[in-house]
Amino acid sequence: MAEHRSMQRAALLDAARALLSEGGTEALTFPALAERTGLARSSVYEYFRSRAAVVEELCEVDFPVWAADVSAAMERAGTAEAKVEAYVRQQLELVGDRRHRAVVAISASELDAGAREKIRAAHGGLVAMIVEALDEMGHEQPRLAAMLVQGVVDAAVRRIELGAAEEPGEIADAAVSMALRGVRG
Predict the structure, then answer these.
(1) Are the C-beta atoms of 87 and 133 separated by less than 8 Å?
(2) 41 φ/ψ angles, rounded to the nearest 5 degrees
């Protein structure tokens, strides 16, 4: 019985990822989850009390996987500058991944304060990954710089998701340049 519940929960989360990546937060409804999984709508409530609960669990499950991908890319880099580049590029490579699309859609969702705090803490953990590299590069305020680098990544993600005129590779190159060299290019 526990295995069946676990499989149903995983199917619901996968359906939620698909709905979020296809249609954003508006598409994530309990009737849509029920339809995607073949469950009765009332059964969805046995697993999640609200949309916010679905979103919160997606973050708990998916964000660590995403962060691990970024961390692994950084570990393969040899220098502090290469680690910053890997941090930027790996996040931008994940843009097409359903987990990433769900996390982005989630950020626009109406969540309670507890869920928002969990997401903020997870995001803070991601940003903390490059503080040491920025410190090694001699930045006077590595924590502030890390937040600003993440802002560049977030802007590049939005640009890619909008289907900008530039190719994703061009956007990634520009984001890396901005992160490493600022507006001087």
Answers:
(1) yes
(2) -55, -40
- Rounded (to 5) percent helix, strand, coil in the chain: 80, 0, 20
- Indicate whether 21 pLDDT > 80: no
Nearest to 70 by CA among 85, 83, 87: 87
DSSP H or E segment with residue 147? helix 142-161
Nearest CA-CA partner of 48 in 97, 100, 39 = 39
- Reported as a single tens digit per residue, the pLDDT across 93-143 is 888 666 666 666 565 555 667 767 777 777 778 888 999 999 999 999 999
Structure tokens at 104: 């982005």
Whole-number Cα distances in Å, 43 to 1, 13, 37, 47? 15, 14, 10, 7
Q: What is the distance between the terminal CA atoms of the chain, rounded to a whole angstrom?
A: 58
Please tell me which residue, 68 or 24, carries the higher pLDDT value.
68
Cα(33)–Cα(41) distance, rounded to whole angstroms?
8
Quick check: 134 and 80 in contact, CB under 8 A?
Answer: yes
| Tally of CB atoms within 10 A around 167 | 10
The runs of H, that is alpha helices, within the chain are 2-23, 30-37, 41-47, 51-76, 80-93, 98-107, 113-128, 131-136, 142-161, 168-181
In the numeric block, which tokens belong to residue 62?
């998916």
